[in-house]
């Protein structure tokens, strides 16, 4: 039963995540286009993404409307930002352009984000 609930929740997370990823990657790509370094572009896109994602992820995926969880959500996304930045930097070392790195890391960062939100932010095991 718990396993099935987790599968459904993860599927909802992925569907809502498509919208959130399109928003976040769109911001990232626009910032890169305007000449920002990938770290600054990712930082700004993450800030905008946190504001956009908190409500959609909280209510549509985890059934939470508790605004007090925003602090945990920000901490979770700060961790995801650091991991994502490390991934983009690693791929850049091998010559992969930030546009491609950003796309390549969407799914791994979504999975990481789901586990952080599921365990740390919204406290559902």
Q: Would you write up a description of this structure?
A:
By secondary structure, the protein is mainly alpha-helical. It has one domain (2-121). The protein contains 5 helices and no strands. α1 (2-33) runs antiparallel to α2, α2 packs across α3 and α3 (70-93) runs antiparallel to α5. The longest helix is centred in the N-terminal third of the chain and has 32 residues, at 2-33. The radius of gyration is 15 Å and the shape is globular. The model has no long low-confidence stretch (mean pLDDT 90).
Terminus-to-terminus distance = 12 Å
How many domain units? 1
Going by helix content, strand content and strand pairing, the class is mainly alpha
Largest sheet: none
Poorly predicted parts: none
The chain-level mean pLDDT equals 90
Radius of gyration, in Å, reads 15 Å
**Pattern of helices and strands:** HHHHH
Number of helices: 5
Helix content: over 70%
Which features characterize this protein?
single chain, 125 residues, mainly alpha
What are the SSEs and their pairings?
Blueprint lengths: L1 H32 L4 H24 L8 H24 L4 H7 L1 H16 L4
Helix pairs in contact: 1-2, 1-4, 2-3, 3-5
Structure summarized in a few sentences:
The chain has 125 residues and is mainly alpha-helical. Helix content is 82%, strand content 0%.
